[in-house]
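Section 5.1 Outputs to date
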Amino acid sequence: MRVIGLSILLVLAWANLVGAQEPAHDPMRDAVGNAIRNSMPAEYRIGREDTLRISANDGALPTLTVHVRPDGTISLPLLADVPAAGFTAAELSDVLTTKLRAFIPNPRPSVIVLDQRSVRP
C-alpha cells in the first residue's frame, strides 16, 4: 500500500514538474522579432520603384521579381500592365487572382514586397 501511495505521489510530482516548465525564451530572437515587427508598417502600400516578388505556391505561375514602374504599374506575362501602386500586398494578390482566373482555373498568387524604394528616409 505504501509503495502504491509513493508511486502515485511521484507520478503527481513529475506531472507537476513537467507541466510547470515554460519554454525557454531566447532574448536575441525576441529582440530581432520585435525590431522587425516595429520597422514594418501594418498596412504598407506598394509605391513606385518598389520591388515585388510574385509567385504561386501550386507552381501554376513562375516566380517573378518585378519592379513597380514610375507610372505605378507592373508588367506580367498573360496580364500585360497591372496597376500596383497604392495597393497593399494582399490587395494586389486579390487583383491578380481575379485577372488570372481567365487563364488559370484556381490561381493563388502571393505578393511579397522585397524592396521599399518608394519610402525614402
